[in-house]
Amino acid sequence: MPTLTFEEEGHIYKADGVKVPSVTQAIKEAGLIDLTFVKQDILEYKADLGNKVHLTTELYDNNNLDEESLHPTLRGFLNGWIKFRKESGFTPIVTELKGFHPLYRYAGKIDRIGTLEGKITQLDIKSGVHHHSYAIQSAGYTELYNYGKHKNEQIKRRFTIYLKEDGTYNLKEYKEKDYSNQLKVFMAALTITNYKRSVS
Q1: What's the total number of domains in the chain?
Q2: How crowded is the C-beta side of 38, counted as CA atoms within 13 Å?
Q3: Tell me, what CATH number does 83's domain have?
Q4: Cα within 13 Å of Cα(142), Cβ side
Q5: In a domain, 197, yes or no
Q6: pLDDT tens digits, residue range 71-100?
Q7: Which are the contacts of 21, defined by CB distance < 8 A and separation ≥ 6?
Q8: I need a surface site. Which of 16, 41, 81, 85 has the fewest CB within 10 A?
Q9: Please, which residues have CB within 8 angstroms of residue 60's CB and are 6 or more apart in sequence?
Q10: Per-residue pLDDT tens for 13-67?
C-alpha cells in the first residue's frame, strides 16, 4: 500500500508523492456539484462552519471535547449529534478515517465508521442542506473502505446525517439496491476528473 499524505492547504492527497483526487474533488471537478452561483464569502463561511462541526463531533466521540468552552453555535450542532447517538444507538469505531484506493487511485476521509443495529455503518456528517451528490459521495467512500476486506468486515449500511443549529437532525439512508448505480456514477466522475487533470 502506498504512503498516503495530506496537505491541509489546497486539500491535497498524495500517494507516494503523486497527487491523487479525493472523493469530493472527483465529484466537484466532474461537474456534479456547481456552486458558482454562491458568493465566495458565503462558501468560505459554510466551509469553516462545516470543519468546526466535524472537529466538535470528532472530539466528542473521542472524549476530548471541552464542552464548557464550546461556542453557542457549535453547541446546537453537537446537541443534534448527541441526540442522534442516543436515539439510534450508533457507536463509532473510527472517526475521520483517511484512506486510499490502490486500484482506482483516489483518496478520501470518511467521517464515521461504526455499528448501528449490529451492522457496520458508514456515516457522513453535514451541517448544510441536502444535495443529490451526497449519495454518490457515500458510494465512493464505501468502495474505498470495503476494498480488500472480507465481506463480513464491509459496510452494510450508509447514511448522511444533517445536523442543525437548533439541536435537531435529519437522517438519510442510502439503500443497498441503489449502491451499484451510485458507484458507477462516482467511477464515471473519477474518470472525467482524471482526464481533465491529465490535459490541463
Answers
A1: 1
A2: 11
A3: 3.40.1350.10
A4: 30
A5: no
A6: 999 999 999 999 999 999 999 999 999 999
A7: 13, 29, 106, 107, 190, 193, 194, 197
A8: 41
A9: 67, 78, 81, 82
A10: 999 999 999 999 999 999 998 766 668 888 788 888 989 999 999 999 999 999 9
